[in-house]
């Protein structure tokens, strides 16, 4: 083959490579543009959360002599702490929606008062419709389905009571404006959450009989947590509530148990269990377990492998 033919063959090969692999022939401007687009997508990704409480312990017991302190205002204390920790993890107030019982906090509460004051200032005082109603749950999840993007992180936290109805656990809404308690089952919750497009979701079910709800969330690809079994009560007190401890562990550098600079959700869960154990033992001492074992109350995690908390 002559030099001229060899040169022609080489030009032909380079032409094929250029057409089949744009990166080889891309200009520096093209490469920079592609990198900028990727960085822009990452920069536009947001952290969004819905914290939803459909009941209240405003009239619960308060016993300062007990390490558990009773149940009064347990839910609002949990919401204030979770809200505080999520903000520390980069969730901005405008991307967190908080719902609570009848939409009003007990401002006479002294435990974590600074956190409660901040939560009320930023999320309540007629800024939003904050009532923990079934209608508002449907509305906020519908809005999340429309506005949460695939690259956004999304946290969903749900707490109140649940009971068995006809062999199926159902979550309860006991807003005072209802004539009777309203409920929602696992299938409907799953259907609503499945429409949310985020590829990085974590769902917390912090109530009795919650394991089936967490399994439904894991089934649609979310990391999920349940505070109790299929048909077992969930312990809650002013001093501890399951979801509060887990999300606090996300924000706590001490939960990086292997010291590699990254806290996984599995590490955070293990750390939360360590921190919560003395309170569970106090529950046991006070006879709150009835005929249940400790394992019914330490909580469950699902689909958390390789998920980063912090």
Describe this structure as you would to a colleague:
With 310 residues, the protein is of the alpha/beta class. Helices cover 41% and strands 15% of the residues. It is built from 10 helices and 9 strands. A 6-stranded mixed β-sheet has the order 2-1-3-7-8-9, sandwiched between helices. Strands 4-5-6 form a 3-stranded antiparallel β-sheet.
| CATH fold call | Rossmann fold
- The first-to-last residue Cα distance is 62 Å
Strand content: 15-25%
Radius of gyration: 25 Å
The CATH C-level class name: Alpha Beta
Average pLDDT for all residues: 88
Category by helix and strand content = alpha/beta
What shape does the CA trace take?
A: globular
Structural domain count? 1
Q: What is the number of strand segments?
A: 9
Q: Give helix and strand order, one letter per element, not per position.
A: HHHEHEHHEEEEHEHEHHE
The biggest beta sheet is recorded as: 6 strands, mixed
Gross CATH architecture: 3-Layer(aba) Sandwich
Helix content: 40-55%
Give a short summary of the structure.
This protein is α/β, with parallel strands linked by helices and 310 residues long. It has helices spanning 3-20, 22-25, 28-44, 74-88, 113-123, 134-147, 186-194, 211-219, 242-251, 265-285, and strands at 47-53, 96-100, 153-159, 162-165, 168-173, 182-185, 200-206, 223-226, 300-302.
């Amino acid at each position: 083959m002559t030099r001229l033919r060899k040169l022609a063959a080489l030009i032909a090969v380079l032409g094929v490579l250029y057409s089949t692999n744009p990166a080889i022939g891309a200009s520096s401007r093209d490469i920079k543009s592609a990198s900028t687009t990727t960085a822009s997508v990452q920069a536009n990704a947001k952290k969004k959360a819905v914290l939803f409480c459909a009941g209240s312990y405003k009239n619960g017991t308060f016993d300062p002599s007990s390490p558990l302190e009773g149940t009064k205002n347990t839910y609002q204390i949990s919401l204030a702490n979770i809200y505080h920790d999520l903000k520390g993890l980069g969730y901005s107030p405008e991307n967190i929606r908080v719902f609570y019982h009848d939409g009003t906090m007990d401002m006479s509460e002294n435990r974590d008062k600074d956190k409660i004051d901040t939560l009320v200032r930023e999320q309540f005082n007629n800024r939003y419709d904050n009532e923990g109603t079934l209608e508002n749950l449907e509305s906020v999840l519908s809005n999340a389905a429309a506005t949460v993007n695939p690259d956004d992180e999304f946290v969903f936290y749900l707490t109140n009571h649940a009971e068995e109805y006809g062999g199926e656990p159902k979550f309860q809404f006991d807003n005072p404006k209802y004539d009777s308690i309203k409920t929602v089952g696992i299938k409907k919750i799953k259907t609503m959450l499945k429409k949310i497009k985020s590829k990085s979701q974590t769902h917390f079910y912090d109530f009795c009989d919650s394991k089936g709800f967490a399994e439904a969330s894991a089934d649609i690809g979310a990391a999920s947590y349940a505070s109790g079994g299929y048909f077992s009560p969930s312990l809650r007190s002013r001093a501890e509530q399951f979801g509060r401890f887990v999300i606090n562990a996300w924000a706590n550098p001490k939960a990086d148990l292997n010291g590699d600079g990254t806290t996984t959700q599995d590490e955070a869960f293990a750390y939360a269990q360590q921190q919560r154990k003395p309170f569970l033992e106090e529950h046991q001492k006070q006879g709150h377990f009835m005929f249940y074992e400790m394992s019914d109350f330490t909580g469950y995690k699902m689909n958390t492998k390789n998920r980063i908390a912090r």
